[in-house]
Amino acid sequence: MATTGGRSSSNKNSETISPTSESMPEYDQFGHGHYFTKKTFHKPTYCHHCTDMLWGLIGQGCICEVCNFVVHDRCLKTVVSPCSTIASNVIKTPTAHLWTDVGHFKRKFCNVCRKRIEDQSAVRCETCEYCVHLDCQDFSVADCKECATYVPDQELPKVVQYHHWREGNLPPNSKCHYCRKSCWSAECLAGMRCEWCGWTAHAICHRQLTPECNFGLVQSIMLPPYCVSIPRTDVPLETIIGAQNKKKGESVAPRSSSEELSSSDQRTKSEAEEYPSPKDKDKDEEVVKIYDGNASMKRRTFRTITISRSATKEQIIAAALRAFHIHDDPKHYIITDFYDSAEKELNDFMPILNLTKKEGKRPGVFFRFRPPNPYYGKIRVYPGKLNVIFSEPYCTIPVTDDTSAEDVMKISLEKFGLESKDINRYRLVEVSLEKGAVHERTMDNNESPWEIIKNVARESVRQKENTRFYLQTKDELYCSNVAIFVGNLPPNLQERQYEKILVDILGKPYKYRCHGPIYYEYGSLIITYDNADIAVKAFYMLREASFDDKNLLVLLLPNIVANMIQPGVRPLLVFVNVKSGGCQGLELISAFRKLLNPYQVYDLENGGPLPGLYVFRGVKDYKILVCGGDGTVGWVLQCLDNVGQDSECQSPPCAIVPLGTGNDLARVLRWGSGYTGAEDPMSLLKDVIEAEEIRLDRWTVVFNAEGTRAEDKPGPSTNSSGSTSEDNTAIYVMNNYFGIGVDADLCLGFHNAREENPDKFNSRFHNKGVYVKMGLRKIITKKTWKELHKEIRVEVDGKPITLPPVEGIIILNILSWGSGANPWGQEKDDQFSKPTHYDGMLEIVGVTGIVHMGQIQSGLRNAIRIAQGGHIKIKINTEMPVQVDGEPWIQGPGEVTVLKSFLKATMLRKSKMKRRNTEPALSASEKSSAERSSVAYPEKSSITERSDE
Asked: Which residues pair with 573 in a beta bridge?
């Protein structure tokens, strides 16, 4: 954090000039708000504007006394980076940050004090890479990238997306998009980066670039913010997108930076109130506590300045303005004696010497807002989302105590060039910014904005600077459709039962306009409001409620206006399972939220795939990226089956980032054996953009059991027509494979071990190690399924099959099993045709035991080929383990039928690595012929598929 005024008491060798009024003209002339003073630097220091070193044995330059911006003398007149004292004022639409947990971020600089973060506690925005020390968070600027900017009356051809520039912390080796020279620095906070398209530029160069942004490399899969609508409310962003950046039920409340002395004096508040040494009495400086209002007095929080004992009142006020990062006319402020009961105003020539002293306490002063004429002032009114042409971020309106909100609206409408006779269409909103958060309140037309400002100033001068007013249309809040997702309800209830639960919680005044759809098997539903105020109140009521001792899961959902998506754009809906495999999902969520619109990235821990699929239900063409294991992919496909009939796009193509243990489907589709964390997330998105669509056969597995142990069946895998007590029938959808016997037995052991100790299964390597240990243990215990071929009967396409002596059979839809093994083996001359995952056929193979399975996974042997077919019946005579796509249980005697499902899945297969083209380019007619050939003979396009697996 910046030095809070005067010379820092802990930096005795500093030659920083004490604060004077000489730095004020710099702001008036150049508009950047910095309080520059001359300084001699005794160690290598870099200019934050041009990134060059301040050369010389004794480097000469300037430094801002508030935000520590360092600059050459020669660069002084070209500085464009605003000081933290005015940074908030130039933001047209403040947007709250999504803070991470408190941590230590290496090789990052604080966006407030511009110093290295290193080992100090800090927080970072998950969506825009804004980093601040914990002690600087009070002065953070709420300028996160705005992800929902839809305006009802705006037409798509007239929509303009602008860059969102963030200063500093650029990727290494970044090049300026304007001058093509290096613009990053490892030594200071310098350079600019657009959070949407990724362009990087020097601070001076970024203003030469076109203001319009095209989203860069991810344009074709970006969900544009101008097609997303959500009411501006106090509901935090993390509750809308389901971010889990806090531990369950816990929130880290960072200590207010008001409690700190300065960035160079990190003692605690209790220590700050004690004199560190009697020698201080002999110094010519005094450390003074500054309270900026009644609120700081009640909380006993303050900032300090180190000031000369002979300082004038004006110098103390100037130092206090810097301490609280305020850029305003000093004549509008006074100081009073904190320890004087009458709060006596200090007007003496040297007021420090006349402050009330208390034993063991530092002297303190109140910093108060008191303009020369307390009945007259000025307020800032911003146009917000109004479609107006106005050169400045805001207009300044003169007001008095008698000026009402309605009067302010009339004057503002005239200044913005709008008709004042339509005043009933508008409202004035009070907006308060605090620690990077945004709070809004609609004002009554008779309220006095100037009285509000004065009341806020009495509580906190700093907060007065962070209070502004917005002119908005009324339909910005009272929008026609606000949807809330409610989960963790009991599954498979009747519609009337769900209605009663919600009405009992909300009461009739907050009853929703309508409900639906209801996802019965998941115990989830959507409720809709046409009034955002009521919707927000209902949201908080539901979030605090529980049913059957389970807290309800509640998410406020954004609304996508599909006709505002540009032709040719296929937004990417991203699902991340943070519990899959190596638990690397949190890193991917953070990365994708920075690269894409956060409203298109969903954590599956929060309601599963249903919230995201509901949000995208009106999008005519989009893609899905599933970050998880094969089970997660199956989960998403199953939810697509449930919501597809109500969606514009019924079968969006799915890509995979493999986070699971086996990742067999991902291997077949060339997405790799497993995400390691070393892959660049942008490269993953490029692969999704370039991937080719391919069909995946899906199969229905029907269990008609004589005595099914329903309690042993895996709930997550059951379809909507799952097991029932009436007919002992259960139906599952299979994407990869279905196993009976030794394979399923080993899978069941692993499943049970993970259920008992889920925290231990956080590594892909560990998970595979557990599999190996269980296999070795089963070899030693001699527990086998040698009679399996006698206990089951198999019929393929109406023909009975004679089974060889095997301990397990595996029915394959894809040519990958057990973490990449191919039980079917390489192509050979026999009666079987070449299998693919879109040929409408299944392959049945047998394994003779655990050792045989190990040999298959090692590539030493193949499984025993038994049959191929599209309709399989299996009669089970005794209880035995089974598994469908890695979900195992014990199945009782009965009949199993596997048949082609009417459900379809379109997958994305990663394109092969592009090689240098050494052949002549195809003509247009040749290209067209090749494309027709690939459509007519799709099997030819997968000739090399086996080598890629």
From this structure: 624
